Amino acid sequence: MRSRRDMEMDLLKLGLPKQDLDEALVNLIVKDTQPFSVVADVGFRAFVALLDPNYVIPTRQAIKAMVDAKYVLESNKAIAEMKKVAAVSLTSDMWTSIWL
Q1: What's the predicted TM-score (pTM) here?
Q2: What distance in Å separates the CA atoms of residue 4 and residue 73, rounded to the nearest whole number?
């Protein structure tokens, strides 16, 4: 019987397409509000290399372009959804703290 480690290594060898990994990286940066420079961090690069030694991490400039493209895509989706509705209700809860 094969060990768990051998099976995990086989899964790692399969890898994911670069496009899927790039999209996951963009989601990490957007959802966790990470700076684009995270891709240059030594610890991050070492972690990614351990996960997938073949993955080439995009540059900060490439990540920025990917985030911009995702913003445009998601904005267009939101606009399309808003065009379908008959009415929108907005609420606000505002207060002032005496401690500010």
Answers
A1: 0.70
A2: 40
92-to-59, 82, 89, 95 alpha-carbon distances in Å: 39, 19, 10, 10
- Across 1-100, the runs of DSSP E, i.e. the strands, are none
Both tokens of 29, joined, read 């940066």
Residues of the chain with pLDDT under 50: none
- Evaluate the CA torsion angle 34, 38, 39, 45 in order and state its sign: negative
Of the candidates 30, 31, 52, 48, the residue with the CA atom closest to the CA atom of residue 39 = 48
- The per-residue pLDDT for 7 is 60
Place of tokens 């913003």: 71
Pick from 57, 47, 48, 55: which is nearest to 15 by CA?
55
